[in-house]
Specification:
Elements: H1 6-14, H2 25-32, E1 36-43, E2 46-54, E3 60-65, H3 70-75, H4 78-90, E4 93-99, E5 117-119, E6 128-133, H5 138-143, H6 147-158, E7 162-165, H7 169-183, H8 190-200, E8 206-213, E9 216-226, E10 229-237, H9 246-260, E11 265-267, H10 276-282, H11 291-297, E12 303-306, E13 311-314, H12 317-327
Parallel strand pairs: 3-4, 10-11
Antiparallel strand pairs: 1-2, 2-3, 4-13, 5-13, 6-11, 6-12, 7-8, 8-9, 9-10
């Protein structure tokens, strides 16, 4: 059974032990509303959701975000890949980018591996992140955090910052726009955040939390929880009342929200792609890119981890080389 319906995919995901949020039917529906074509392939006991982005002349690029453990992908053999290849060729994919749902330290490509998969020079998702353990009591989790982080949380409470669920998507987007302009990162449209909320919130998988002072929103985030994992994907803050440290209390409340849903880890989603010794040596002096967010995220006492490098499964080698040259990854 190659491609399956949306309902069948939801049923498949429900049976998985700890699927990644990017493999959910809702994530596929979100992306399909903003220019991606979605295919869901089930072969035997395993399945993947693949996103396709249009290229000129009717070609596409396939993207398989966080499907399953990368080692399983390589060990599963030809039957699974035959189904995937059929769909990719039907979609006229130049190549399929795969970001396995495993850590770099756990993943290797066997030396005798025969299928045409190569290590990619590019990732879609930030490869390095900080994972905060949510195991233990509140006091035990707080004890693993940096002293300054705990101080800022207490300061926010002392300075009358409160956190609650929020459904003001216009307000959330305004905060995102302010933050993006200040910190120099891209911001999705209001329609994108609204669609994400409409898809995930009714299922209990996502919520927006806002930190306020005197009924004024100072910071907000959209948090996701699925299986044992929670994800901080979108967050923003104003330039007002920053001395009240609202973002610290906001993250702690999001972690508590995730624990209430059975999560044992919280993915802070994206720090500079450097080893921890480099991060620690340079974070006080670096300000570009994700360095600013690392200074913030390191305080929560998590573990710096790197995802397995993306893989590319190439179908049209000449066009693939042209693609790499255009995006700066060629020779």
């Amino acid at each position: 059974m190659p491609q399956v319906s949306l309902d069948k995919w939801r049923e498949f995901i429900r049976k998985q032990g700890n699927p990644h949020i990017l493999q959910t039917a809702e994530w596929g529906e979100l992306k399909s509303a903003f220019g991606w074509d979605v295919a869901r392939v089930v072969s035997g006991d395993w399945g993947v959701q693949i996103l396709f982005r249009k290229l000129p002349l009717g070609f596409t690029v396939g993207y398989m975000p966080k499907p399953v453990d990368g080692n399983w992908l390589l060990e599963n053999g030809n039957s699974f890949w035959a189904e995937v290849d059929t769909v990719c060729r039907q979609k006229r994919a130049v190549f399929l980018k795969i970001e396995p749902d495993c850590w770099d330290s756990e993943f290797t490509i066997p030396t005798n591996y025969q299928l045409p998969i190569t290590i990619s020079p590019h990732n879609i998702q930030p490869p390095r992140t900080v994972i905060v353990s949510l195991e233990g009591t509140d006091d035990e989790i707080l004890a693993r955090m940096k002293q300054k982080c705990r101080y800022n949380m207490r300061l926010a409470e002392k300075k009358e910052v409160t956190v609650r669920s929020w459904d003001d998507l216009d307000g959330f987007h305004r905060l995102m726009t302010v933050t993006g302009g200040r910190d120099g990162f891209g911001v999705h449209s209001l329609d994108y955040y609204r669609k994400a909320y409409e898809l995930f919130h009714p299922t209990g998988v996502a919520d927006i939390l806002v930190a306020e002072f005197d009924s004024r929103p100072l910071a907000a985030l959209m948090v996701f929880a699925l299986g044992k994992r929670a994800y901080y994907l979108y967050g923003a803050s104003t330039d007002e009342e920053r001395n009240r440290m609202p973002t610290y209390l906001l993250q702690w409340r999001a972690m508590q929200w995730a624990r209430e849903r059975g999560c044992t880890e919280y993915d802070l989603w994206g720090v500079p792609d450097e080893d921890e010794s480099t991060l620690e040596a340079q974070f006080e002096n670096r300000h570009e890119g994700l360095w600013g967010v690392y200074r913030f995220k390191r305080g929560f006492g998590g573990e710096v981890k790197r995802a397995a490098q993306a893989l590319d499964r190439v179908y049209l080698p000449l066009l693939y080389r042209l693609y790499l040259w255009r995006v700066g990854g060629g020779d």
